[in-house]
Please model this.
Amino acid sequence: LATKNTNIRPDMQRVLPGRIMNILTKAGEVADKLNYQVYAVGGLVRDVLLKVENFDVDLVVEGNGILMANQLAAVLGGRVRTHEKFGTAEIIFPDGYWVDVVTARVEYYEYPAALPQVEQSSLRHDLYRRDFTINAMAVALNPGRFGELVDYFNGREDLQIGAIRVLHNLSFVEDPTRILRAIRFEQRYDMAIEPQTMRLIKEAVREKVIARLSTERMWGELKSILEEADPEHMLDRMSELGVWDYLFPEITFWEVQPVISEMPQALMILRNWGWAEPAEKWLPYFLAILHWTTQDTAYQICQRYNLGRRQTDKVLDTIAHWREALRRLSAPEDVPLSALNKIVQTLPREAYPLFLTLLEDKNAIRRFRLVMESVHKHKPTVNGKDIRDMGFKPGPLYRRALDSVWQARLDGLVQTREEELAYVRAYLEKHNAPKIEPNPPQPQR
Ligand code: CTP
Model:
């Protein structure tokens, strides 16, 4: 069993990059000078014990967290954003990386004018407010104790036996997002929600606690799930536990489940074909979930979750075009590569994994692969700047000229860069693209 004296410094050194070890070490030194105790808590500790990389540093300070954040930032060379009311701060580094610092505070006083009960108890309080035992461990950072594991709730044992366990019975009522988090951690680490915690989830679902969540918080958790390496089992579990219907009441899980279950394989194949992971990692799965519904319903779902215009358009484009793209790619007659490419381009590239799961015809799959690979190989070298250098005014014809040269490359009509440039120039002249005007002559006196 883990005791307070377990020291995990060797695990930290093995798992954490030098940059993070340096931040943790400096945090301990700064805290010592201020006569505070400081700890790294939460996901980082859990993942060190699991020997999994995790770069999210959350510090809990027994003392003034904001003062601590300012001094640590000065030592490390970052700036600080503070939230005075909550006693929290972020140290933000020039490359955008950041570290969270929170003040551990006691919520109660022995009697009205008493000093708060600080010492060890404030850390314990902070940890007790957290979601699961595996996320409620801390590691001491002060030089004299660096690496000492603080584990009040047997989180380490739960990690070993693979149990997702809440700290108290009101956990899901206090924060219903934890239902989704329980599913996420269970599936991510191949653990099991332990029986009492499972009873509490079922009770909370029966009591409809999820309905009390803002759509913003729901979306936050949903997105986290869709960005995991393997969301498909999490989505299964959401359906099993009756959570799906709160997130997508308009969509019957069993209608989209077959496609979702094929997504991991489709993603793997596409990566082999040169498809790069999109910046919005959640979007391929989101499209798989929505593809079967109508544009109207999809639009409502996008509105509800406050998606941006660009993302909403990708959802609507996918729904509008996948059937037709499927039909045309499966057509028996020969089609030039540029035409195949045009068909595929009616879909946003985030929809390609979904599209691959929908392709059944061998010939269609072969064509899709051809497009994927050749698009990569034949990406033209000319760009907007080249066109500008030719003296054409920026405008909508730029994009059309670039699209057209791409098609020409796919069909082998142009090959060298010189041919590309000549092709683009000819295209723009043919379409009467306006030229950049020379500076008007200054009026003469
Ligand atoms: N936490 C919590 N309840 C929540 C959200 C977070 O108790 N609803 C606590 C947990 O202790 C968690 C920590 O805050 O470990 C940090 O939260 P977050 O960064 O969301 O999760 P991680 O555990 O770091 O998980 P991930 O690996 O997905 O980032």
Summary: The longest helix spans residues 309-329.
